Write the structure tokens for this entry.
Amino acid sequence: MDPTRLLFHIGRYWLLMKQVFSKPEKPRLFWDRVFYEINAIGIGSLGVVSIISIFMGAVITIQSAFGFESPWIPLYAVGLAARDGIILEFAPTIVSLILAGKVGSSIASEIGNMRVSEQIDALDVMGINSASFLILPKIVASVFIFPFVVVISMFLGHLGGFVLGVAAGVVTPYEFVYGIQYDFRPYNVYYSLTKTLFFGFIIPSVSAYHGYYVKGGSLEVGQASTRAVVYSIIALLLFNFILTQLLLA
Amino acid sequence: MIEVRNINKSFGDKQILKDFSFTFERGKANLIIGESGTGKSVLIKCMVGLVLPETGEVLYDGEDFLKMDYDKQKVIRQQIGMLFQGGALFDSMTVEENVKFGLSMFTKMPESEKRDRVMFCLERVNLPHALKLYPAELSGGMKKRVAIARAIALKPKYLFCDEPNSGLDPRTSILIDELIKEITIEYNITTVVITHDMNSVLEIGDKIAYMQKGVKLWEGTRHEILRAQHKELSEFVYATKFLQQFRDRLEKE
């Protein structure tokens, strides 16, 4: 991408965020919208997150067992590796990447469609801060609900690893449970949830940015939706690296 | 009353509005007519603050809208009702919620009062039965009527209509025109209509400005437009065979 274009987009993104973070016109209506978005963004994503978490937990467990086929490595290391893989990276980052695809494209196309059908203009003409009215509830809802989704993913990842790992015969129930308790550091969960809070901000804000400034018709809305997912993922991976460096190094 | 003075607006190298001035009078349907792509929609967007002109003034009852701070602009905006070309109804809301939206955002009316007002506005546009429908379930004409109901819910002082008849059949088109005319007189509001539909011009045009390539070329009333001695305007007005025949008959008389 042309560096001047990149700077233009970063500048415009921050100007949009400045517009977004203003006092809501009607607090009651604002909270109604936040609860609606919590349901749409968080609760609506639980199905896909649950399925992926269970199977990814199982795969991480089986892969760990496959890598630890040595008499010098105790079998409980399988549970330990699965735990760290799930808590440190799978639940916060991979689940956020999945949510970037699901939630990001939906936010960009929803706001993009409102732009091309002049619904955003209608809000502006009424004297409503359209950016704040449409985007702020999505950001607040995501920042609030993403950590819960990630915690559920952590739990289901472990459950999947335990049930399917034991069923596959790669680990015993006792060793898996012992492994996931061994040298447990609560800081890892703190690190994971801190990352999630940032991702909960990045995904709706970057996606909404792409939808809010769309020009044209349905073709451009589709393109904006794709761009929203791509740039959300890039921003997410970049911040994953920065936060890991800051919190773990 | 709204006065527009010396508005200039460009997009890149292309100048869309050139020194446009016009006075939109209260209690009248003020029409901006002209071919497609001549800058009518840009003009209306400049007037409501969706697009910022490079130079010029937009005076709402004497006060320059473009020089007002955000809060003052907000007060003016709450007195504006706007009917967009496609209706611009909020897809995720029912007809009732769409019409009630402005009331919920800007008034402290009790719920029962809001409901009465919504019913009154929907009855005004002959759609009381559409209360629980979503925009996707409405026809083009119904969407426009709901949009009018939404626009008048807050009892506006100014009503803007961007091509209210586009995409409508002739009968519905006449219904919308009549509605705009009645509302203008009933509430004594300043109505601004952008159109290139000659039926609307002859039906409701109390005051008309004809523009071409961003320049106002003529202004007058619907009674004057048919006899106006203006080459470009005549080409626009008598573009259809039906009106050409009408002109020929007029000339014979």
